[in-house]
Amino acid sequence: MPSGNEFPHSTVHFGIPPTICYDCLRYRTFTPISEGTTSMTAMADGTIDNPEYASWSKFELGTWLTVKMMMESTDMSHESMQIVKLLEVGSDNLVLETDMTMTIAGRKTHATVKRDVPKTHAPPSDDHKADAAKPAVKLEEGSETLTVGGAEYKCKWKHTKVSVNGKETDMKTWHCDEVPGGMLKMETTTGAAGAIKTRVDVLEFKKA
Question: Could you tell me which residues are beta bridge partners of residue 100?
Answer without folding.
Answer: 82, 111
